Amino acid sequence: MSFMPMNLAVLLPFRIFSHATRVLRIVAETPDGSFGLLPHRLDCVTALTPGILTYETEAEGEVYLAVDEGVLVKAGAEVLVSVRRATCGSDLDQLRATVVQEFLIVNARKNNLERVMARMEAGFMRRFVSLQHDQ
């Protein structure tokens, strides 16, 4: 069996964040924990949680990316990672801080805002319906 390295593309909603060829291994964070991919792994799809995505190439060595939630798809030698936001760096502590401050906190605020908006809409609809019944 011949060794066939993977190609990795990290996609943001508005552009391609990074593209790497000859990737030897990938480690990503999923809702069930860390998830490792080697070139001969079966094709798969998994959800990603905010965290550190690590990949290794012969030319660059280990590369670390802080990624927001998204999806990882492996089809043959092609691996696509589609996430909302991403940033790269070599300092893992800084990347972990980015994940917490920029991804997790912002996601929590967005979820709270969506809950408040849903309650306001439900309240508006209840009052609107009660106005129709009063007439």
UniProtKB/TrEMBL annotation:
Domain ATP synthase F1 complex delta/epsilon subunit N-terminal, chain residue ranges per copy: 6-86
Which Pfam families does the record cross-reference, listed alphabetically? ATP-synt_DE_N
Record-linked CDD domains = F1-ATPase_delta
Q: Where in the cell is it found?
A: Endomembrane system
Cellular component GO terms held in the UniProt record? endomembrane system; proton-transporting ATP synthase complex
The keyword Methyltransferase appears for this protein: no
Keywords, in A-Z order: ATP synthesis, CF(1), Ion transport, Membrane, Transport
Main location per UniProt? membrane
GO MF terms on file?
A: proton-transporting ATP synthase activity, rotational mechanism
Regarding the membrane, this protein is recorded as: Peripheral membrane protein
Q: Which family does it belong to?
A: Belongs to the ATPase epsilon chain family.
What job does this protein perform? Produces ATP from ADP in the presence of a proton gradient across the membrane.
Q: Know the name of this protein?
A: ATP synthase epsilon chain
Q: From which source organism is this entry?
A: Thiorhodovibrio frisius
- Please name the taxonomic classification of the source: Bacteria, Pseudomonadati, Pseudomonadota, Gammaproteobacteria, Chromatiales
